[in-house]
Amino acid sequence: MRILAHGIGVVRDLPIPAIYFFVGATLVLAVSFVLLLALWRRPLLEARAGGRALPDGLSRVLLSLPVRAVLGAFSVGVFLLTLATALFGTRISLLNFAPTFVYVVFWLGIPLLSVLFGNVWSALSPWRTVADVAVWILELGGREARPVLEWSGRWGRFPGAAALFAFVALELTKPQPDYPRTLAIAIALYSYWAWAGMAVYGRDTWSRFGEGFAVMFELLSRIAPFAAREGRVVIRWPFTGLAGDDRTHGALLFVAVMLGSTSFDGFSRTSSWQDLVTNVRGNLADSSQRTVDLAVMFVNLGGLLFFIAVILASYLAAVAAAEKLGGVRRSLVPDFVLPLVPIAAAYMVAHYFTLAIIQGQFVIPLISDPFGRGWDLFGTVGFAPNLAIVTYETVWYVQVGALVIGHVAGLAIAHDRAIVVFHDRRTSLEAQLPMLGLMVLYTLMGMWLLTRG
Fold this sequence. Notes:
By secondary structure, the protein is mainly alpha-helical. Helix content is 66%, strand content 2%. A hairpin with a 2-residue loop joins β2 and β3 (232-235).
């Protein structure tokens, strides 16, 4: 059931011709660029990144151990339920709790919570919760829990990028990625990766660099108007958490996996790609089903890698042009990687909006019958999802709006950084033109993918 793995909403009957949307989005970016140059003349984001602390009492409650314990216990319970239903529940994906939870509630819900409320995954991660309990038990027995190895920092976010790539490769390349038993194996393998890394390098270190979901949700949480600092919750201007540079090794690759995977998800729905996959299946008609599935998986894997490479190549080309126009002799890759984060978030909203709205409703009956055994634990099994909850026009406007807002935000963050890097106003203007071109390219590519199918 591929709906659980692919979420791009394809709209053919647009309210106005598609070219008007393309031209309009380009004009919005161009006008935004001119306004930024005229009105935004000094760095603002870093100065406002500190935010204002919420009242001490509220901060203490939100960050208290009991709240974290309740959230952690709930998260571990859902994790165990997901693993159990994947292992022992019905093999029919739509009737099993695990596929809908993993590909809809978790994969789409946690990013949304991160963008709205900050790094909630630090309290909701079942892997971190289990590791915290294990450390507490060790210390309760008088033993000291210490990492086996010291993290050198040389690998940066490359381990996290590898973990995230493994998940999106399962989602986008494997035939029937929502098959419950396949998900059970994937959950077990990822759990081993998370807990082994925390045991070897420490909980905080592995969460920052190696646990792919933790790295992704932390990056997305920098968009949020809330953050936790020094034991207090602060409220700040949105996107200010993305100010400055990011010199962590592997940061660009990680963001490229986020962007490239969502882009390929959209392209894999086009008739061109579907025809290619059909031809592969036709050429192997006399082969076993396993051979056919492997061939399709490798073709999809090649497409996924290609889109990630396109994101990397286009970004590096734009940065190289900015370095040349700005007369900078050092690499500017770390300076402009964070503006890609709101674009990645925008791609997720645009491509998975319909999946979240429509498929997300199916979790209501599934909570009453998670194993698909005919139960009705909470009286919701008879709930009928509304498949026409949003109109095609609404879907299209939300998708286009998300793309435009995300790219304008990325342009603003890049402009703020450019003011710091290029002190001369004319040089700053010239050096930012390649970044404007990159934003336009990504916007048009995202909108084109939304119109194909």
